[in-house]
From TrEMBL, chains A, B:
The keyword DNA-binding applies. InterPro entries: DNA-bd_HTH_TetR-type_CS, Homeodomain-like_sf, HTH-type_TetR-like_transc_reg, HTH_TetR, Tet_transcr_reg_TetR-rel_C_sf, TetR_CgmR_C. It comes from the Bacteria. This is HTH-type transcriptional regulator BetI. It comes from Methylobacterium trifolii.
Length: 187, 187
DNA sequence: GCATACATACAGACCGTTTGGTATCTTTCA
DNA sequence: TGAAAGATACCAAACGGTCTGTATGTATGC
């Protein structure tokens, strides 16, 4: 994004870059590090540009979280369509998507941001609704107490992933995934 | 804490009040709301007083988190000494302390703060070490994969507790507690 | 009377946001 | 077809506010 002033205009790219930089900052240094200045500096644009694309800083952060939830949405949906077994289908998808993300990209790309969206009161409601939507939608196939425990455990893995880089204990993910998935299958 | 200037000096009380107010702010409005000004205002003392008791804002927050972890420590230890069954003793204590806290005080007193201590990079390491300490210490009795799943599920309940007030789905805690504890017992 | 426990006042940095201007892009219409 | 006109994209600078932290003053407690 060099020589930004006189270059060709590329609004879509700038917007994307801003969102990506904001997400990266939140993940690597916490939500507190997501200042307008820091994001713009990382994206190599000025604050004016940022405020052209987003009405406020909060609007930008909201957009980041919304994108994150949409991505999770899509991943879960994709995992579900290939699953022939109805019982526990959503729970299985939830587990696989969660653990696979942690296993694939070392840096646990979304974890910190996702958890951050829970601590910030302004973002809590969005995530709460997103989550409630799923539970409501799949009540018919995923209502068993054991399945709930599996989902809660998957959430717990998110947290463990946060501490991973700081010497926190990290479970054997492949084995854990296997075991959790097994728990979602009917006896 | 009225008439602060000419009242009797009570350093211990002031320190306590500051810590309590900082914790309350973090729990109710998120860690971002914990500014020196806001804490001092809530405690009805001046910044001078606060900086007399704590070397920096970060030192104060560290103290809050340290207290929280100490409290958890004590609660877990207390739950363990009354447990005759060695196998899974720590995991059982972890589950009961976690869920009982959420069940007892509606507002999930510590949840938000605890999660914040995971999100904020400056606090992560302390919590990671605290957690690793436990796992290390009780490896002999709590190393089974099922026990790990139970602990992860308990962590997941922390997260669910965060979303509770915003309409997020909340599990039936007494039933869940029963079921998780049952999973920690040898067959 | 000296250390401790505060209050007061202030400094300097950084925050999100606004403003005003200058590019580039797109549409319109002669 | 192309030039004028308007909309959009972006920069640069500055504003008011709030942030943490410091320096200094003043009371209390032993």
């Amino acid at each position: 994004m060099e020589n930004a002033y006189r270059r060709r205009k590329q609004p879509e790219l700038v917007r994307r870059t801003l969102l990506d930089c904001a997400a990266r900052l939140a993940m690597e240094q916490g939500l507190a590090a997501v200042t307008v200045q820091a994001v713009c500096e990382a994206a190599a644009v000025t604050k004016g540009a940022m405020f052209h694309h987003f009405a406020s800083k909060q609007a930008m952060i909201d957009a980041v979280v919304a994108e994150l939830l949409e991505k999770l949405d899509a991943d879960i949906e994709a995992a579900m369509v290939t699953d022939p077994q109805p019982y526990g289908r959503f729970t299985r998808a939830y587990v696989t998507v969660t653990l696979d993300d942690l296993m694939l990209n070392q840096g646990s790309q979304w974890t910190a941001l996702y958890i951050s969206s829970l601590t910030e009161p302004s973002l809590r409601q969005v995530t709460a609704e997103w989550f409630a939507k799923f539970v409501r939608r799949h009540r018919a196939t995923d209502d068993h107490p054991t399945l709930e425990i599996v989902r809660l455990a998957a959430d717990g893995v998110w947290l463990a992933g946060l501490l991973r880089d700081d010497g926190g204990p990290m479970p054997d993910l492949p084995a854990l995934r296997k075991r959790l998935v097994a728990m979602t299958l009917p006896d």
